[in-house]
Structure formats: C-alpha cells, structure tokens
Amino acid sequence: MTEFSRRRFLQSAAAGALAAPALPFGTRTLRSPVAISSANGVKAVELAVQRMIEGWRPVDAAVAGVELVENDPNDDSVGLGGLPNEDGVVELDACVMDGPSGLGGAVGALQNIKNPAAVALKVMRHTDHVLLVGPGALRFAKMHGFPEENLLTEASRQKWLEWCEQRSAVDKRIAPEENGAEHGKEWFDKYKHKTGTIHLGAIAANGDVGSCTTTSGLAFKIPGRVGDSPLLGCGNYCDNDVGTGGSTGRGEAAILANGGAFVVHQMALGKSPTDACLEAVKRVVRLTKVKRLLDGKGRPNFQVHFYAANKDGKVGAAAMYASQYAVGDEGGGRLVDVAALYDEAPR
User: Fold this and answer.
1) Sheet holding 315-321, edge to edge
2) Residue range 210-234, pLDDT digits in tens
3) Does residue 165 fall inside a structural domain?
4) How many separate domains does the chain show?
5) pLDDT class of 105 with cuts at 50, 70, 90
C-alpha cells in the first residue's frame, strides 16, 4: 500500500502499540487496567480505568466512561446535542460486549434517551436478545427508568437548519448566500460527511475485557439509518481470550468490512493491536470500489478509524488518514497519534 505514514507508525510504536501480540487462552495480570478510545474520550478512558481499579467489570467501566461524552452537550457526535437526522430528530445507536460472559447488547435508532450505552447494557443483562431498535428500544428504556428528554440542543438545531438551507437546490428552503448573505460552500463541505462516535475498549488488571461504542450516527441521515455502532462485530467486538476491537468514522465501511470482529480475529492470529487495525483499514480500502467514494488519487474519500487492545494491555489504532486516539492507564489519559495509512488528506 502506497503512502504509508511511516512517521506516525513509529510514533505509535513508541507509545507501546507494537509490543508483543496477545497469546489466546492465557491468564494475565497487568500492572494497571488499560482503556483505549477515540480522541474525544481522554476523560472517558481515565474514568474507565478508575472504575476498573475500584473493581468494576470492564464493560461497566466502559459504559461509565462513554457516559461522560454522551452527557456533554458540546460533543455533537453522541448523546445530548448529537447532530440529528434529516427531520431534525436525534437518533442514537450503541452496543456493549462483555468478555467474561461472551454476551452483548445493543440499541438502534433510539430517540429521547441520552445514554444509549447504558440501555444497551440493560438489554444485555435483562433480556435474551442482543439488539432492540426504534420504538421498541424506547419502550424498553422507559421500563428501566431512563427519562425521556429533548436531545436537540440549540447549537445542534442551528446546524441542522443550516444544513436544510444548503439543500435549497432541491427544495423550497433558501440558503443565506442565495439572498445576498455571505455564507459560502465551506459549511456544507464540513458537514456532508460528518460522522461522530466514541468507542471504548477496556482491559482489567486480571485480563478480562469489555467494550462499548455509542453514537448519534451520520449527521442528517435518513431517519432509521443504523450504522456500525450498534452492530456487534462491526463497530464493537471483544473476545475474552484475545482483546477488544472497535471503529469510528464511516459506519457503512466498517459494516461492510466487519471491522471490529476482523481486528480481534487478526490479533488472535498473532498480530499486534496496531497491525491488526492496519489490516482492517487496508480491508476497507480493498472493499471501496465505487467512484463516488474515491478521491482523485483513487483512495477512499472518507475517514475510518480502528482501535484495539489485547489481553497483555497493549493497545493500538490505525486510520485511513492522520488522526489521534486516547489511551488511559495508571498514568491518566493522553492522546497518541494513530498509524495512518495515507499521509495526505483525501482530495
């Protein structure tokens, strides 16, 4: 694969991402619990590690961590304040997976409940199902005491209104620049592929694993659209003999690549976390063939990230283009550069 970012690969190696791969079926004792997440989760991984130190199971610690982001109205990629669907309604997706039990739970297209990851945890613990969607997921959440609330903040509503105006070529709304205001095309370009998610993988000191992914999904999506985040094996996966894997970015690409499970399976075959994630990115490249998804150089014109942690407590991440991810351990949370497949942004 051309244009591989050697510099960022080496930076990730220095961060410990390329240490010896996990050996399945062994017993581990780590110096400290470890957590890994997307870049918006520095505080989330800190909290997850603290909860594991206190004795929480990794999956519960992961949910506690991502709730910090779900509750933040300034993060428009998840939970409260998430960017809405094309009708102006915030729809949330999430899934969890528990390594020791091998069980998982998920919700999709959930409205009016700001903490879908906690609802997914209830699905895992209180039902024989894995995935609940739409009105059924909402009824289940309300049964378990989750309060309904309007998740569309004023900031997200304004972004939705601007997006509506930029569609004026195909409907009767009018964009400000069409009425003489200075607005331009830059805003639309910024949001046309707007995605946002937080994935968090957690490894306890005894080697048990758990993971979670939560999102408000693709900005201004078709109502009812479900991405990779609530699909076990796509946006999130873990195996207590191996480790955790997850993704953020273009959900459709992660679904088609079966990304989360693919990352974990690569580690089971002996690859380090970073190498496993790089293989997943390369898989996305191979599967991306239609012209509308390629830039002028024939590369995917979207971003996708994969994250991994193995039972030895080693972590790694890779992306199509340069980015960062969050790592947490006894030293706190910090950002680390991913191993990027391409040096230059799509064009």
Assistant:
1) 236-239, 243-249, 304-310, 315-321, 339-342
2) 999 999 999 999 999 999 999 999 9
3) no
4) 1
5) very high
For residue 304, is it within any domain? yes
- Taking the C-alpha atoms of residue 23 and residue 324, their distance in angstroms, rounded to an integer, is 27
Q: Which residue segment(s) compose the domain that 329 sits in? A: 6-152+194-342
CATH number at residue 74: 3.60.20.30
Which of the residues are catalytic?
197
Strand runs labelled E in 23-175:
34-38, 91-98, 103-111, 131-133
Share of the chain above pLDDT 70, in %: 84
C-beta atoms surrounding 14 within 10 Å: 11
The encoded tokens of residue 53 equal 């130190």
137 occurs within a structural domain: yes
In a domain, 180, yes or no: no
The DSSP code for 300 is B
Banded model confidence at residue 82, pLDDT cuts 50, 70, 90: very high
- Please, are residues 319 and 340 in contact by the beta-carbon 8 Å criterion? yes
Is-contact 216 271, C-beta < 8 A? Answer: no
The whole-angstrom separation of Cα 93 and Cα 301 is: 24
